[in-house]
Amino acid sequence: MINQSYIVLFLMLSIAAANLPWLSDKLFCLHQITVKSGWLRWFEWMLWYAICFAAGFFLEYKTMGVLTEQDWEFYVVTLCLFAVFALPGFIYHYDLKEILKSR
Q: What local confidence, expressed as pLDDT, does residue 64 receive?
């Protein structure tokens, strides 16, 4: 039961982290900058991915006691899953924000 709650909490935090670069105009939600360019958003998104990835490994080691060996497919799937998690924030930033401003 405790492992399930860790997994749900980890997934919810990963979804939030994947959307942070698109929903916030601050750099890492800390530093206000005048214009946050697209490449900076992508760079921030990749760093959030690395942080979530490291947290996932830490969570696996903490709950199971060992790290499971993975092939390249695992890493590609986690990157694609993180991209899917970021889709709501991406759509909001590039499409929905302009529509809501015009109303």
A: 86
